[in-house]
Design a protein that fits this description.
Elements (H helix, E strand, L loop, with lengths): L6 H11 L4 E7 L11 H9 L4 E10 L5 E4 L24 H8 L6 E9 L4 H9 L12 H12 L3
Antiparallel strand pairs: 1-4, 2-3, 2-4
């Protein structure tokens, strides 16, 4: 049995067909309170230049007992990082289970930023591929730490 899509669902599907790849990051912060003044202005810049589009930006804290609490952006930003532009950045993609899973990789007592973003720079390429019948069948990321370790081992002749 097929169900007819609502106009809103058709619009959302159309928007997805024109989107770039969507990624997520979970970034554990080094202290309980981090201003983000070193890293977050770069995210704001990427958004301003249209390279990425933030779909979700949620701050979570994994308590010592393992429980998870979402906290406000103001906990990270003293105003210098410009994070206020992301207040309310919630697409509905992340549910409580997703946030709990993301926080599960964070050390107890630490705070993390969960970021879901669209790579808008790749949208025209990805859209053209989809329209011509291509599909993404694998994806991956090489962590910089692994790359550096590999280069160091190569230089050492290991």
């Amino acid at each position: 049995m097929t169900q007819e899509l609502s106009a809103r669902e058709r619009d959302a599907l159309g928007a997805l067909e024109e989107s770039g790849p969507i990624d997520y990051l979970v970034v554990e912060l080094p202290t309980d309170r981090a201003t983000g003044d070193a890293a977050f202005p770069h995210l704001v810049d990427l958004v301003d230049r249209g390279i990425v589009r933030v779909l979700d930006l949620v701050v979570v804290r994994r308590e010592d007992d393992g429980s998870v609490a979402a906290i406000g952006l103001e906990e990270l930003d003293d105003g210098s990082a410009g994070l206020a532009v992301f207040a309310g950045a919630r697409s509905g993609l992340l549910g409580d289970d997703d946030l709990a899973e993301a926080a599960g990789v964070v050390e107890p007592g630490r705070t993390a930023v969960v970021l879901v973003y669209e790579n808008t720079w790749a949208a025209p390429f990805a859209t053209a591929l989809r329209r011509n019948g291509a599909q993404l069948v694998a994806s991956g990321r090489i962590p910089v730490q692994a790359l550096l370790a590999s280069l160091d081992a190569d230089e050492a002749g290991v």
